[in-house]
């Protein structure tokens, strides 16, 4: 009986060790993923800032960000580091979708993690192709218009495109509102984040989240317009969406404000890699 108890304790100890090792691996993956996300957002914001002040003809989107990375010394190694980071983010999100990451989440949260895992898996694959010397393909604007055109040709295509636009607008509004409400603080380790550092991270999260939400919502408006007018050319990717801010009455200053917000969101992603509860 004592021997059985010893074996049981041994199995329990091994199981706990495996869970601990799995948790540590997923935590490391999550932190690497947030760093990769931060790099891309900082670069997109920086490119958009240059556009706002007439100093860049490059695309202010993920393709433009990767091209800027490739131009740097050791650019190839940096691209592969981003591949690893995006792959880690896909793994971490996928673990959340399967309920293998920390506390149990609601079904809606798990479904959202599943969608994010698929997205980051695609970004990882596209970045790997580019890092291996391949092309990034058509621009984000061309891709958005191509997908819209294809969908519009389907039965009830206009309804599907319109629904996608509404979803994207809703996502943007939710992102901005959650940022203003400082909901992101719930996911941070506030015991380690105190004083001035906490204030700075809060500012980064609020301003960055609002800017990110504005871009999502604006892109959704263009997709909805494409559905209403049955014109795929009305759909825009990230680059054209950002440039559209400069065409408002506020002029390039609105684009500069949104671009600065994206840079701050990138920095917030770095803070998340350090202080987020993973």
Which key phrases capture this entry?
single chain; 278 residues; mainly alpha
Fold and architecture overview:
It is a single chain. The chain is mainly alpha-helical and 278 residues long. Helices cover 76% and strands 0% of the residues. It has nine helices and no strands. Helix 6 (157-180) packs antiparallel against helix 7 (195-229). The model has no long low-confidence stretch (mean pLDDT 87).
Q: Could you tell me the mean pLDDT?
A: 87
Derived from helix and strand composition plus strand pairing, the structural class reads: mainly alpha
Alpha plus pi helix count: 9
Oligomer: single chain
Distance N to C terminus? 40 Å
Number of strands: 0
Range of helix content: over 70%
Query: What radius of gyration results from the CA coordinates?
Result: 21 Å
Portion of residues in beta strands equals under 5%
C-alpha geometry: globular
Order of helices and strands: HHHHHHHHH
Let me know the largest β-sheet. none
Low-pLDDT runs: none
In short:
With 278 residues, the protein is mainly α.
Give a topology summary.
Elements: H1 2-52, H2 62-70, H3 75-97, H4 107-131, H5 140-152, H6 157-180, H7 195-229, H8 238-245, H9 252-275
Helix pairs in contact: 1-2, 1-3, 1-9, 3-4, 5-6, 6-7, 7-9, 8-9
